[in-house]
Protein 1
Amino acid sequence: MTGFALSPEHEDFRKVVHDFAEKEIGPHVAEWDKAHHFPVDVVQSMGELGLMGLTTPEEYGGAGADFTSLCVAIEEIGRVDQSLGITLEAAVGLGINPILTFGTDEQKQQWLPDLVSGQRLAGFGLTEPGAGSDAGATRTKAVRDGDEWVVDGSKQFITNSGSEMTSLVTVTARTGTREDGSAEISAIIVPNGTPGFIVEPAYDKLGWHISDTHPLTFTGCRVPAENLLGERGRGFAQFLAILDDGRVAIAALAVGLIQACLDECVRYANERQTMGGPIGRKQGVAFKIADLEVMLQASRLLTYKAAAMKDNGAPMKEFKQAAAVAKLYATESAVTATRIATQVFGGYGFMEEYPVARFYRDAKILEIGEGTSEVQRMLIARGLGLPVE
């Protein structure tokens, strides 16, 4: 990436993913969304295209591509459907990356091949009914019993955790108490199908109807001691270490949504006739669409600037700040963009037969997942040296 322009290679790759999304996803999205259907075959086709293993080194079956390439893929899939965009983002960021970054050689050899090929998925169980960003509130426990960990507790809002493709969920759990009285949080791999691990019925969500999301319950769930992922007591810190990448990836997902809103609005404003001409000639409509273009360009620049910083090895403090800025601006812009798009479509925008209705439903979660807008503002303020709590 030179400056803020994607390289020719990135643009060529964008076209490949764009064409795949238009052909394999676009024609079916409305039907899948209405049925809350998770299309296993299409997700596996995404794997066959190499999307799941984009940033995984070749030694584990991946492409060894840069982080920017992953953001391009997420943007293009998310432009056609946000649910499958988050499926890709979570498969890599929350499924593969923890094992790739913190796993032992044995764990990598055991789990990565199927995950990288896209034939299987993995989830990451952090959030609980009373705990998310507050690690100290974690109630799920894992007690060492000989050569096993015994896990008890519950998790909620876990993506890619209950599909027929899911092979494991990495969960954070209390494994002890530190000298200062704080909770010792560790990460443990729990394979799907383990006795005592129950995947509860899928959520009935406002949006992301195609995405696989479940609450999870663990009751006397026993896994081998070697399923500890990374260093004992570093589970929450490990999650935070991969979260910055996830924020940029969510920003890319938001960019895809803004692009979709812009595309639909330009098309509709040229086609919809009223008072003797297209509605696009009315400044009230045209100016709204112009605002979409401004939000798109700004969000895209912030997102790919942050991705380039990741690829170029920028200092972590600077990257964290750029990731928070990109995530905050792009996701809030996406929510605004869907509101504008619905307004441009008028009454039709309120009807499910038009894609902007789905865009509107899918957008809100972008301001919440992988760090709320409030959390991003807190991180940005801290990065500026403010003593914000």
Protein 2
Amino acid sequence: MIDTAALAAVLAPELGAVTIDGLRELTGGASRSTWAFAADSRPLILRIGPPDDVHAGMELEAAALRRAAAAGAPVPHVLTASNSVEPLGNPYLICDFIDGETIARKIARALDDTSRPALLGQCAHALAQIHRADAHGIGLVESDPLTDWRRELDQMGDTTATFEWAFRWLERNRPARTRPVLVHGDFRMGNLIVDFSSETARLAAVLDWELTHVGEAADDLAWFCIRAWRFGAPKELAAGGLGSIDDFVSAYQAGGGVPVDRDTLHWWLVLATLRWGVICRYQYERHRCGQTRSVELAAIGRRVCETEYDLLTLLERT
């Protein structure tokens, strides 16, 4: 449980003396827990979790959020963040609470043929704003996802023929590198807050920046478009279940995003799908080896075959 007195103390430099009310843990968050609370009636969010070698530190995540905000992207306002474990027991980040819906299936059911493409355009514009942000001087590391996910799979000591074929194809067909930008790293339905309080659905905020890094813009674009993140929507709505990939890319470029070559995007879509497959295999491994015994993790492992099917479908056109 979070010590409310300690929580008030870390907020004091920003807000002065405050009273903490209504502290409650929210659902979701695989690597870090999320808590909602009020500081003298101001609704806030606390994200907290142990440090690791995979996710950005809380101070780095906060710096990336502030740079994205300066570029105009819809992100929560950060009050304070620290990598120290001393005040609250683990590194933490505190930001403003933003009302809205994050569950992708609920969002999909609430959209119609007018609001769906409008929201797609807002997502594309937000991503263009993120990619225009200044990524220098805050400690972000440039990442090569192909190398990273090859290493992740090798460390598990297990693979599949489809995964190996995909890696070989990716290595042999890698497009020319593009200008490095600030990459969100997990831009997808489920990490977005959508506000339905007005007549038209509105993208209220882009959340969960723990995988942020410096990389290529197509990394974020492709991740939004893999089949897993359209949650059963037809292939005509391949971009997050909201619209076509062509419409998504067009809106991204209209919003000031970097030019996107479709063959290059296809390469990144193969990599993004492979990445999801490796993640599914990793989640199962956590269960299998006893690190985190969980029926949910075991079930996620069964989705490896889904990603193999998706990879074979994508590679069929090459």
Protein 3
Amino acid sequence: MISAIALSPSLDVTYVVDRLAGIQRPHSIHRVPGGKALNAARAAAALGAPVSAVAVLGAGVGQDVADGAQAHGVEVHVVPGTEPTRSCVSIFARDTERLTEIYERSVPVSARTASAAVDTAVGLAASRPGWWFVSGGLPDSIPAGLLADAVRRLHDAGVRVAVDTHGAALRSAVEAGPDLVKINRAEAQELVGGDAGTTVPELLTAVHALTRGLVVVTDGAAGAWATDGDGVLRARLAGHTGTFPVGSGDSFLGGLLLVLDGGGDLAAALALATATGTANAQVPGAAVVDPELARRLAREVEVSAV
């Protein structure tokens, strides 16, 4: 089973227009329950995993997000928030084939509400074994140490924990020894103090020294690297890009956890993760994944030892 804690969800909207100027009538509109945690949860659900999410949601838009996530196969446990749930907008202009992304900041979540979300997750862990994950940036109102506390308490409840975040929250979380850290190259550099000259394998080694768990570092079109401490793997998929990358990193995480939760090895997990992220980029809407395409692309992913 795969479960998420979503402390900063959103309603993600993608517009496809002719150009980014003047009055536009969108050719298509795509609304999905989003934020990084719910995006990853929906990607895993699309691939067939039983998925649950504890989500802090305000009234109005928050109800739309909850209903949408349920419709996408994610069992949602709502922790009521006092602020309206945010919206994030992506606009794809056909004339330039470029995306403009407008992301509202995470709405304030009180320490009490955030703690209630963690309490809910810990309470569900006995009936939701497998992997739990926390993904995305935390609202500024939440103490960074809350994430480390969540990792420790979920470990005590007997489940494995993955983290995909950045900044102070990431630094705090790694102190608790999550089973998996999945971050991008810039986030890894920030965490360990690397610079532009630091190679990804060096970053992997440095992060693993902090967590002693699985570490995955993504680097856009250059591929993804992973280590379990015994060796380094690199995954690459040539010949496929896509014009809608929003949510690809989240989709990557969903595919990664699906394989790991099913007992697959790290190489297989990297292959499906890479393919799921690429499949997401083919169509508008964050974490809108065709599972058949993802599994077909997974057979084309090159995973090699570094």
